[in-house]
Amino acid sequence: MKLFIVAMLCVAVHAQTTLAVPHFADGNGWKSTLVLVDESPSPQTANVYFFDPNGGQVSLPIVGIGSTNVLGTTFTGNDSTFGETAGSASTTTTGWMQIETSGHIHGTLIFRQRVQGRPDFEASIPIVPAIQNDVIPFDNTNGFSTGLAMVNPFSVINQYSIIFRTESGVILGSHQITLAVRNQTSFSVSQMFPETAGQRGSMQLTVAGSGGQNGFNWIALRFNPTGAFTTLTLF
């Protein structure tokens, strides 16, 4: 069927589930590929919506389909679909995705960057339900850098605290982040939080509140000085 963006993620999607993919990138060397697999023998449906960082719907050029702001898929049972962005634009479009599914679906998102004169690089990120607390490692040492993307997929404003710790557990800094309804942000960790420059350790993100509309989805990528990158594992 169809594939989306290039970076990989794996997740089990259960009946009547809504998931958020915290980041996509298309254009200026970037492509994104989304893979969805129906793990059951029964027919299922899935709709994928594309949003810009401010929560507005955005259209992406999908290979074999054209420009669209939503992808709808009907599974017949034990089948899969692939949706790949064209990546042909001279500028990069970024944002996030929302996936609504009626059944047991697994998903994978793949990011790919192509730069002339070097191999293509790809990385994978997990698509998971929104969470309320999580820890991810970061590494800004020896020319490495960490990029972070996070989204508030809910219909209320959410506030978050992020704490950075060294390898030995010493707190480097603590900050507050506010995201409006369905807003997303992405940034270099060392540029946004200068105390993490030249450091590596862990970062903990926690949402204020514990209700059904309180949570986030996030990913982190570690960039090698050579340009290669990989996903930093979520705990």
Core attributes:
five-stranded antiparallel sheet, 53% strand, Hypothetical Protein Tm1070, Chain: A, mainly beta, globular, 235 residues, four-stranded antiparallel sheet
Short description:
The protein is an all-beta fold. The chain has one helix at 189-192, and strands at residues 11-13, 17-26, 30-38, 44-51, 60-62, 66-68, 70-75, 80-84, 93-101, 105-113, 121-125, 133-139, 145-151, 158-166, 171-179, 184-188, 200-207, 217-223, 229-231. Mean pLDDT is 90; it is low at 1-15.
Task: Describe the fold and architecture.
- Strands 1, 3, 8, 10 and 11 form a 5-stranded antiparallel beta sheet that branches. The protein has a 4-stranded antiparallel beta sheet with strand order 2-9-4-7, with no helix packed on it.
- The longest helix has 4 residues.
- It folds into 2 domains: 115 residues, Hypothetical Protein Tm1070, Chain: A, CATH 2.60.290; 99 residues, Hypothetical Protein Tm1070, Chain: A, CATH 2.60.290.
- It is mainly beta and 235 residues long.
Report the top-level CATH class of the largest domain. Answer: Mainly Beta
Please indicate the count of domains.
Answer: 2
Q: What is the percent of helical residues?
A: under 10%
DSSP summary: helix tally: 1
CATH topology category name of the largest domain: Hypothetical Protein Tm1070, Chain: A
Average per-residue pLDDT, rounded, comes to: 90
In CATH, the architecture of the largest domain is Sandwich
CATH homology group of the largest domain: TM1070-like
